[in-house]
Design a protein that fits this description.
It contains 15 helices and 14 strands. It is an alpha+beta fold and 400 residues long. It has a five-stranded mixed sheet. Strands 1-8-9-7 form a four-stranded mixed sheet. Helix 10 packs across helix 11, helix 10 crosses helix 12 and helix 14 packs across helix 15.
Length: 400
């Protein structure tokens, strides 16, 4: 592997690391194909927005094509075939069970009042008696929703609009004393880990904090291919000082190789197992929370793609739309499309469609039309309709 990469080479390294090696996306996809891809990515970020489909379903579709939602649900929340667990990683995420020992340090920090979220740390200090009551209630009653917690109260408009009961459950979740048993209509039901996480997983030894962070950074490097220190740290949202020390150790071990990337001001690091294929990429619509684009400055450095979520932007001020998915075509992000699954009408609606300045409009529209049809079929929507907003709207309507 070269230690000085052009931006095109860096893109190919990253796309290959992320599973975009022009994958075959037709035919049946079962857990035997899904599990290795999840292990390649390390995690699936969860988000509550459901205007299209919950975000954690999308990365596998982007890389593998149509697969049954129920399979991922069963492996995430099923009682017998569970392969994933939910925790705070890159925000709320689903991780393979084998990574459970590597995130226990974060739970231990939270129990010590030194966690990631100050509001929960304060609640943990100020409401110790109530937390014990809530934990005892869940232990006695099994999977519990926030509305079922005694003394929980109603939402008070505080942090994320959480009630006292919800904040207690989330604090205990942050501390690793509760975990997600299941979700119903996306609502989290909490239970004690011993009834959710397999005993053989809980029995795995807990590494020292420094060792766990170093292993997580190694996994980040493998998933990213080539990355800056900030990119590596962001993948699992690791602490700054500990990351700096661990990166230097990984360099000494040869797991990370210092490198330069054309146009990058920061030092880059290549993972020793990264590949530089002659061709990498694919055709895919990406979740706003896909690891290929979730770190916005990285997406700009790699693809020249300036991307921001406009969900919380007032409608008149939105530039590209409410829920906008980047469109990967080849080894470049060629466009973006604001999508909505109109389940009542049975239509996948492309409300605003734009192509990037470098992309050919007709070529992009043709590829995007095929991808939208694939997504509509996966979501069980019989039709695709394109709106009239955006510089690619006319070409997409024609292609459809």
């Amino acid at each position: 592997m070269k230690e000085s990469l052009s931006i095109g080479q860096a893109r190919r390294v990253v796309l290959a690391a992320q599973g975009f090696t022009w994958p075959e996306r037709s035919g049946a996809v079962n857990w035997g194909r899904m599990a290795p891809m999840i292990r390649r990515l390390n995690l699936l970020q969860i988000d509550s927005v459901n205007v299209l489909v919950r975000s954690h379903y999308l990365p596998l579709f982007s890389r593998l094509g149509s697969y049954p939602h129920a399979t991922l649900d069963e492996r995430s929340f099923g009682s017998r075939k569970r392969a994933l667990f939910e925790c705070w990683a890159h925000e709320a995420s689903l991780l393979p069970l084998e990574l459970h020992p590597l995130v226990r340090w974060r739970m231990a920090r939270a129990r010590a009042g030194n966690g990631t979220y100050g509001q929960m740390d304060r609640f943990g200090r100020e409401e110790q008696r109530y937390l014990k009551e809530v934990l005892a209630f869940v232990a006695a009653n099994g999977p519990t929703a926030a509305s079922e917690v005694p003394g929980g109260g109603k939402s008070d408009g505080g942090w994320w609009g959480w009630s006292r009961g919800k904040l207690a459950l989330e604090t205990l979740f942050d501390q690793g004393l509760l975990t997600t048993a299941t979700r119903a209509a996306f609502e989290r039901f909490y239970d004690i880990p011993e009834r959710v996480i397999p005993a053989e997983t809980l029995a795995l030894p807990t590494p020292r904090e420094a060792d766990a962070i170093r292993q997580l950074l190694d996994l980040s490097g493998l998933a990213l291919g080539v990355a800056t220190e900030a990119d590596l740290r962001d993948y699992f949202r690791l602490p700054v000082a500990e990351t700096k020390a661990a990166v230097m150790e990984l360099v000494e071990e040869g797991a990370l190789v210092p490198a330069t990337v054309e146009g990058w001001k920061q030092r880059a690091y290549l993972h020793r197992d990264a590949k530089l294929p002659r061709k990498a990429g694919g055709t895919a619509l990406l979740s706003p929370f896909d690891p290929l684009v979730w770190e916005r400055s990285r997406a700009e450095r790699l693809f020249g793609f300036h991307y921001r979520i406009e969900i919380y932007t007032p409608a008149p001020k939105r530039k590209f739309g409410y829920y906008v998915l980047p469109f990967l075509n080849g080894d470049r992000i060629a466009g973006r499309v604001c999508l909505k699954a109109d389940r009542q009408a049975g239509v996948l609606r492309a409300n605003a469609i734009h192509h990037e300045p470098h992309a050919d409009a007709q070529e992009t529209a043709t590829a995007l039309a095929e991808e939208l049809r694939r997504m509509a079929a996966w979501l069980g929507l019989p039709a695709v309709e394109a709106g009239d907003k955006g510089n690619l709207s006319a070409a997409l309507r024609s292609a459809l």
